[in-house]
């Protein structure tokens, strides 16, 4: 094949290169068996790797510099503590002299405080001391023991009233040992100052090294980016110009045009397709058939997804349903045994209230009540099981597991009580006050799709469901009763008092019951 068919007219040069020596590099990139996208990504990746290497190197050096500065700060702190130690030793000697001269006991009290400050300073230095500094600290500690013994001896003589001997022991022992402590502390200060100077010098060296290295990386990255840009751009421009020239001649009626380029990418395939136009209809029809098949499959998947969405939103909040459907929260709907918290609430004196209300009013009020209670359950990550007359059954910890399911259930109960207070206006025609009782129990239950082949419900069954219902029945208006396991899970977050144990048929021992008296439970985490 040829670059173009001669038509007798002067041809534009489709292959102009500003620098001929770069042709081998351009041809090598063009012949690489990769897509244009891959070639561009490779060029960008090479530049990015250089920048990344510079960044990683900079981070390593900066971290080393940060550690050095942290070490300098720690050494400075130790230096200040050592200087405070010298002051404490000198102060003790000064206070002793004043006590012996004035015989005022308050000076001895100041000595005790100074000794305590000195001991605290030495312990603080020891915590961050290296091996060499620890040796000095140990020597100072041993000297300080002798200093304390001498001090105790002087104090005993002082308290005995023998001021002469007290002064002699102070001068010959206590005062001399204080000088030993000061000498060791000065030695420590000198060592710390040398370490600080060394760390600062290392820090300056790393800073210079970082500056030079970043500048070198930047220069190499810039040159590499320019070279890669030039080579990649020409490997793309050359086939475009050849194809453009051939298409222009095809438009003029010369359908025998054939184009040859070295590219083994999209442009290489384009030149082949340019010479095989007559066979493209078959390819288009095959693509259309495949598109139709994919479209049917997509519609079927979307219908299934909508059905799952509708089913999920009957039980859980919209955000939880979205999390499940998008795969952010993996769940399984098979029946399993799981540790959950069950909440049951019902309206106190509902029968009397219903008798005093018209049916339409009762339905509207119940709808408003159930909507409010359901929103609260959903806002705390709970799952609505069912409505039982005027009662609401919900559970926490499934289908999305929560470690704090007991806390969420208790928070839901308190929010329900508060919301019911706001809803009283809806029930004003009744002679009874609107109030609810709530029962909560935590333990292992069976949860999942349970039912027949024609109808199933996502529900919970088990002893703790019955316990929660019994607790709700036993609860007084505006009272929350919880089982022992629930109380154990939230005991640090609520105030409660024990009430009479609950005896249930089929349960070997009574259920310990607690009444929550005050909420200190914070709002649960985001779902």
Task: Give an account of the 3D structure.
With 527 residues, the chain is an alpha+beta fold. The chain has three domains: 70-213, Four Helix Bundle (Hemerythrin (Met), subunit A); 282-312; 318-519, 2-Layer Sandwich (Alpha-Beta Plaits), CATH 3.30.70. Helix content is 63%, strand content 13%. Strands 1, 2, 3, 4, 5, 6, 7 and 8 form an eight-stranded mixed β-sheet that branches. Helix 1 crosses helix 5 (163-251) and helix 4 (131-160) runs antiparallel to helix 5. It is flat, with a radius of gyration of 43 Å. Mean pLDDT is 78; it is low at 1-11 and 278-282.
> Uncertain runs with pLDDT below 50, 5 residues or more?
1-11, 278-282
Oligomer: single chain
Secondary-structure arrangement, i.e. CATH architecture of the largest domain: 2-Layer Sandwich
CA(first)-CA(last) distance:
66 Å
Biggest sheet, in brief?
8 strands, mixed
List keywords for this structure.
3 domains; eight-stranded mixed β-sheet; 63% helix; Four Helix Bundle (Hemerythrin (Met), subunit A); Alpha-Beta Plaits; flat; alpha+beta; 13 helices
């Amino acid at each position: 094949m040829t670059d173009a068919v001669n038509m007798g007219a002067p041809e534009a040069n489709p292959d102009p290169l500003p620098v001929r020596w770069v042709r081998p590099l351009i041809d090598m990139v063009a012949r690489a068996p990769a897509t244009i996208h891959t070639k561009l990504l490779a060029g960008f990746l090479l530049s990015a790797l250089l920048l990344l290497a510079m960044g990683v190197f900079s981070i390593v050096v900066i971290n080393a510099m940060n550690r050095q500065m942290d070490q300098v700060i720690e050494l400075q702190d130790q230096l200040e503590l050592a200087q405070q130690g010298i002051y404490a030793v000198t102060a003790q000697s000064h206070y002793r002299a004043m006590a012996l001269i004035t015989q005022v006991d308050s000076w001895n009290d100041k000595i005790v405080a100074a000794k305590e400050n000195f001991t605290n300073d030495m312990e603080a230095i020891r915590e961050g001391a290296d091996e060499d500094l620890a040796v000095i600290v140990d020597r100072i500690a041993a000297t300080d023991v002798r200093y304390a013994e001498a001090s105790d001896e002087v104090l005993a003589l002082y308290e005995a009233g023998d001021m002469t001997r007290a002064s002699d022991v102070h001068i010959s022992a206590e005062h001399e040992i204080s000088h030993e402590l000061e000498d060791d502390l000065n030695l420590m200060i000198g060592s710390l100052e040398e370490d600080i100077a060394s760390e600062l010098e290392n820090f300056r060296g790393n800073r210079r090294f970082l500056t030079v290295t970043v500048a070198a990386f930047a220069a190499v990255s810039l040159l590499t980016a320019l070279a890669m840009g030039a080579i990649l751009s020409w490997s793309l421009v050359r086939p475009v110009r050849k194809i453009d020239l051939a298409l222009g001649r095809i438009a003029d009626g010369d359908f025998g045009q054939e184009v040859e380029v070295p590219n083994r990418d999209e442009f290489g395939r384009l030149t082949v397709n340019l010479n095989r136009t007559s066979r493209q209809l078959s390819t288009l029809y095959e693509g259309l058939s495949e598109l139709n098949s994919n479209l049917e499959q997509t519609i079927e998947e979307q219908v299934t997804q909508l059905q799952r969405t509708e089913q999920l939103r009957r039980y859980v909040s919209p955000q939880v349903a979205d999390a499940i459907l998008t795969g952010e929260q993996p769940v399984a709907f098979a029946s399993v045994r799981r540790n959950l918290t069950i909440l049951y609430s019902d309206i106190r004196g509902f029968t009397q209230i219903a008798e005093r209300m018209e049916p339409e009013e009762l339905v509207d009020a119940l709808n408003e009540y159930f909507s409010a209670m359901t929103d609260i359950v959903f806002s705390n990550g709970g799952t609505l099981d069912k409505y039982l007359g005027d009662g609401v059954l919900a559970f926490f910890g499934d289908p999305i597991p929560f470690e704090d399911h007991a806390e969420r259930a208790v928070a839901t109960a308190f929010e329900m009580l508060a919301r019911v207070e706001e809803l009283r206006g809806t029930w004003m025609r009744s002679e009874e006050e609107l109030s609810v009782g709530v029962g909560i129990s935590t333990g292992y239950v069976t949860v999942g799709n349970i039912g027949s082949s024609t109808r199933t419900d996502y529900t919970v069954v088990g002893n703790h469901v019955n316990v929660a219902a019994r607790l709700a029945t036993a609860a007084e208006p505006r009272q929350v009763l919880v089982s022992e396991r629930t109380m154990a899970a939230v005991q640090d977050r609520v105030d409660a008092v024990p009430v009479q144990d609950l005896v249930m048929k089929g349960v070997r021992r009574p259920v310990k019951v607690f009444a929550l008296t005050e909420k200190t439970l914070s709002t649960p985490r985001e779902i």
